[in-house]
Design goal:
The chain is of the alpha+beta class. Helix content is 54%, strand content 19%. The protein is built from 9 helices and 7 strands. It has helices at residues 3-20, 25-32, 36-48, 72-75, 82-96, 99-121, 126-139, 165-170, 173-185, and strands spanning 23-24, 52-57, 65-70, 143-148, 155-161, 189-195, 204-210. The strands form 2 sheets. The protein has a 4-stranded antiparallel sheet with strand order 4-5-7-6, covered by helices on one side. A 3-stranded antiparallel sheet has the order 1-3-2. Helix 1 (3-20) packs across helix 3 (36-48), helix 2 packs across helix 3 and helix 6 packs parallel to helix 9. It starts with a helix and ends with a strand.
Amino acid sequence: MTAPAQASTRDALLSLLLERGDAEAADLAGALDLSVQVIRRHLRSLAEEGLAESSTAASGPGRPSNRWSLTERGRERFPDGSRRFALGLLDSMRASLPEETLKQLLNQQAEDKAEQYRQQLGDGSLQQRLEQLTRLRRDEGYITSCSPEDDGLSWRLQEVHCSVQRIAEEFPAVCDQELLLIRRTVPDCRVERVHWRLEGGHACGFRITPIES
C-alpha cells in the first residue's frame, strides 16, 4: 500500500471510529472494504501513537469481543471551534468592559491556574517541580522544554509552540497572563521573560532563578 493510500485509510479509520464511538476490527474492515489484517495493522499503529485504544467487552456467549475507540488525543485530531469561540468571547469582553477589568479577569484566571499547578507540583526540589510543570504544559498542547542555564543556578523554560498563540496575537495581554502564571507557580523564584514569539523570537522563554532566602 502506498503512503497516500495508507494516509487515506488512516483518516477514514479515524473518522469511522469517531462516528461509531467504538467498533470491532471486523466491522471496521467491512465498512472500509479492507481485510481485517490491514485494519488491525492500522489500529495497532494508531494505538502506538496514542490515538486509539482497545477494550474487551462481553457480547453474549463465547469469547469477549475486542472493541476499538478513539482516545482523547485521537478526538483532538478533528477540527475544534474552541479557539474561534475564545477569540469571539474575548473580543466581546474587550468591547463591553474597561481594559483594566479585562486585565483583572485574565490575571485572576492565571492565579487560579497557578494554584492548580502548585498542588500538582508538590513540595519537591525546584528541578522536580519544573520537570513536572513541563509535563503538565505538554499535556495542555504546549511544546515545552526545561534546561539548566550556564550559570548553574537558573533554569530556562522554553515553549516553541504555544497552544494559545493565535489568541495571544489578537490579545497580547494573554502573554502577560502567562508570565504571571509562571511567577505564581514558582513563587520562590524570580521569573523573567527572555524570549517572546510576538517580538519575533522563535519561542517564548522564561528564565527561572531561585530567590536567595
